[in-house]
Amino acid sequence: MSRVKRGVTKHSRHRKILAQAKGHYTVRHNLYKRAKESSLHALQYSYRHRRERKGDMRRLWIVRINAAARMAGLSYNQFIHGLKEAGVSLDRKVLADVAVMDPQAFSSIAAVASASLKHT
Question: What CATH number is given to the structural domain containing 101?
């Protein structure tokens, strides 16, 4: 049985890993072994941070809503509670967008929230 020489396969696999590690620091983009470690870690970080980004965005929306609600004379939790009492079902992403893009519309939403708080 003839032996199999793996030069071409190995070379293409190495080239793929080195291409993935392009832009990494020092030997992490030059040496195959270091580049493979670096690429694996980078892929793990990107996977983890794609999930973390969801929480980061929610925190950002809450900060924006809180700032706009305080300008309307309500705290964040009063504002959200008032919206729930009024039956307004806007999510935080939309509320934050309205707070930034259209402050007058947000102030009318805040007025609805504060009115529902006074009725309870």
Answer: 1.10.1900.20
